[in-house]
Amino acid sequence: MDDKFTVYLETTIPSFLTGRPSNDLILAGKQEVTRRWWETRSDHYQLAVSQFVIDEASAGDPSAADKRPAVLEGIPLLEIDEEVLELTDRILSTGIIPSKAATDAAHIASAARHDVDFLMTWNCTQIANAEIIARIRTILDHAGYGSPVICTPDELFGLNEDEN
Question: In the predicted model, what is the mean pLDDT of the chain?
C-alpha cells in the first residue's frame, strides 16, 4: 500500500496547467502556482481523476483541449458507480450546488465515494468555497462518507516546500 495522500484533480487543474498564459494577473498567478505545484509536488501524491474530468477536459477551446489528455495520461480513473451517482443526486437535492453545476457535485461525490484525501480545484464558486464546503461536509457525513479536504494548489505544497 502506498503511503502517499490521494489527490483528485478537478478539471480546472489540467485546464490551468495547459492553458495559454493569461493576461489577467490573477489568472496568470493561478496558472503559475498550478505549474509549480505540478512540477515540484505532484509526484508526492497519488493522483486520481474521474470520467467527469476526462469529459470536461476534452471540451472547450480545441487547441487547449488537445493538450489536456497528455497531462491526464496515466492518472488512475475512479469508477463512476451507482454510489457516486446517488451521492451526486443527494448533494444536488439540497440546492447547495445548483443543478447547472451538476458536474461539480459529481467531482465531490467521486472523491468522497472513493475516500480520496484531497480534492484540488480552482473552482472557488461551487467547490472550494468555505460556505459550501461546510455544508457539503454535513451532507457527506449524513450519507456515511468522509469529506476530502477541498483545496487549491497553493494550499497543497506540503509541510516544507523545500523538502524533496
Answer: 93
pLDDT digits over 61-111, tens only?
777 778 888 899 999 999 999 999 999 999 999 999 999 999 999 999 999
CA–CA separation, 55 and 3 (whole Å): 29
Question: Would you say 46 and 2 are in contact if contact means Cβ atoms under 8 Å apart?
Answer: yes
Domains (range + CATH), the chain: 6-155 (3.40.50.1010)
- Residues 147, 140: Cα–Cα separation, whole Å: 6
Instruction: Please list, residue by residue across 112-151, b when 16 or more beta carbons sit within 10 angstroms of its beta carbon and e when fewer do.
Output: bbbebbbbbbbbeebbbbeebbebbbebbeeeebebbbbb
User: Global pTM?
Assistant: 0.92
Three-state secondary structure along 89-129? HHHHHCCCCCHHHHHHHHHHHHHHHCCCCEEECCCCCCCCC
- Rounded distance between C-alpha atoms, residue 101 and residue 97, angstroms: 6
Q: What percent of the chain has pLDDT over 70?
A: 95
